[in-house]
User: Fold this.
Amino acid sequence: MLGLYELNKEEIELILDTADSFKEISTREIKKVPALRGKTVVNLFYEPSTRTRVSFEVAAKRLSADVINIAAQESSVKKGETIIDTGTNIQALKADIIVIRHDSSGAAAMLSRHVNISVVNAGDGWHEHPTQALLDIFTLREKIGKIKGLHVVIVGDISHSRVARSNIWGLTKLGAKVTVCAPPMLIPEEIEKTGAQVCHDIDEALKSADAVNVLRMQFERDLKGAFPNQHEYFKKFGITKERLEKVKKGIIVMHPGPLNRGIEISSEVADGANSVILEQVTNGIAVRMAVLFLVSQGKEKP
Amino acid sequence: MKILIKNGHIVDPANKIDDIRDILIENDKISQVAKAIDTKSDKIIDAKDKIVIPGLVDMHVHLREPGREDEETVFSGTKAALKGGITSVLAMPNTEPAMDSVENIKKLKDIINKTAQANVFICGAITIGRSGKELTDISQLKKEGAIAITDDGASVDDEILFLKQLKNSAQEKILVICHSEDKLLSNNGVVNLGVISTILGLRGSPKEAEYKRVERDINLAEKAGAAVHIAHVSCKESVGIIAQAKKKGISVSCETATHYFSLDEELLMGYDTNLKINPPLRTKSDIAAIKQGLKDGTIDCIASDHAPHTQNEKEIEFDRAEFGKIGLESSLAVSVTELIKTKILTWTQLVEKLCLNPARILQIDKGTLGEGKDADITIVSTDKEFIIRREEILSKSKNSPFIGKKFTGKVEYTIFAGKIAYVGANYR
Assistant:
């Protein structure tokens, strides 16, 4: 599963429906089912990540899979091994699924071309982060009951965001309207051709929004020259209580984490009634269980 | 040694021939081109239903030697060229070391003398180490055999320095080939800037990075009174700027590469690093403009921009992979398939782009089938379809996006300096 760009509506809905049925498992006394017993899932992480890796690990373990974590910083990759060699070595260990996180766009696609086992993209560069978008959509669907006809605003550094891209594909395929909101420097070229609308004014964008997905602003990288400073950004684009008071009462506030409180979102909002941020974390497990389960069922490469 | 090529359809725009003729080769020269030559010869090639054209002149080739013999050598590159019907190449100077001194050119000449299987012409560098800082001594480079200069892979950012070298080149009457790219604007882009770069999450290089530099280079050339040649034109705006300059009478020529009229950026959706090229593959509307530019004569030549890279430089993450693709063995076939079969160019026009114009621009006595000329001849079957297969590639590097694709325009014979240098599988 490389991205939501290549999935159709029915495939996305199948994942969401499967996640629905897996969600209950995490509420049981014994949080485990044997669906992937005897299968091996390798988490191959080239980028430091705690949340996504842990979420995949928990998901795989609740399905009874054996999980191996490879952090590239401390493996043979550091000694110069190519991603393809690493992949074929993992395949030679008779693993069943590789979950890959990489800082280069297209890394998951390239790996999948060179191995015969399933590859799940856990985020590649600025390209896609499909399971994050699926859990965002799952959470929305659970909260509102549908996706079709919703208006979702994604605010933040769209240019460098794989979460934004995956959300655009997933949401638009399910019939939602998506608006991306950021200063012009952080909106990628011709994004409107993907089906998303562009707005540079967050108050304007939020007016008709049913939900807002607040992206993490990484001022430590990627943003040189794009915006003067964090405080200025917070003033112009930060999601605050004052802003939300002017829009639909039940607007849902999402964030893929980790939070930069006081930069893209205020603490009041992050911890407030509109926030579903922790539910997203819980739902992430169900969604990743669904993805791992479905790819393990696939005869063909998913 | 006499070779007689019988009944071929000769396309030789230099002599305005587009008809059935026989060609007689004696030693290394063409001795006669006429209808129904009937003379004793050592070898007769039946070219019935074939097109017979001058050996191709490819003015943009990276042979990688000296320095990167793991990617390509003069020997392997010229072998590959002959298979593609190419008998003359201009070797780009971005070798290690660069062709920026008499000493380095001497070394390359020695390699060429010992190993080249086809004509290899030498292109010198504009600046020392192609670093854009200090000018090379082009009068010395020319004396040693360089027939043009370029910093290919880089543009000289310093306008004053570049203007100075353009003035020198006007004095020395040596062609300056421009890799027109403003690296500040291309901003480490790896694909064309637009919806595709956005979808792929890859850094995009805007067309401005190319055409603004094309505009600058032409302006400086005009000021210096120098002859410039714009390399690998890839976008609509560059074609427009060059057309305007030609209209004004500025001494500018240009080439495109086969991939800029056969491949568009949408093919990058699978992150195939063999499609990672600089300048990047552009949009369908740019392809249309390139084809139009070829048709109306704005674009003078088609080159391969043969850029060999090893598997371990290409089968890695897209943003880390090297730029470029090989092309010596496919440029004729891609051109026939994309330009002749689609009736965009006539054979006469295509031979101008692939043979005659590059020879004229480089002022070498090639690209024609005139009597008394060097017997560099390519015989092509035009209708038979064939598939480019990895295992058949002669280049040391296999980085071709055309592998597995179907083409027409197969080279059956390449004659170099009066000798049969390549024979297609069907005739062996």
In short: Residues 2-51+374-382+407-427 of chain B form a domain with the Urease, subunit C; domain 1 fold (CATH 2.30.40.10). Chain B touches chain A at residues 193-195, 197-202, 204, 270-271, 273, 312, 315-320 (CB under 8 Å). The first strand of chain B starts at residue 2 and ends at 12.
